[in-house]
Amino acid sequence: MSRFILQRLLQGIVVIIAVISITFLIIRLGPGSPFANEREMPDYVRENLDRLYGLDQPLIVQLGRNLWSFITLDLPVSYRLKGWNVGEIIAQGMPVSFTVGGAAFIIAVLVGVPAGAIAALRAGKFEDRFTMAVSTLGVCIPSLVLGPLFALLFGLQLHWFNTAGWYDADDWVLPSLTLGLISAAAVARLTRGGLRETLAQDYIRTARAKGVSETTIVMRHAFRLACLPLLNYLGPLAAGLLSGSFVTETVFQLPGLGRHFISSALHKDFTLAMALAAFFATLIVVFNLLVDILQAYLNPRIRLK
Question: C or N terminus of the chain, fewer CB within 10 Å?
Answer without folding.
Answer: C
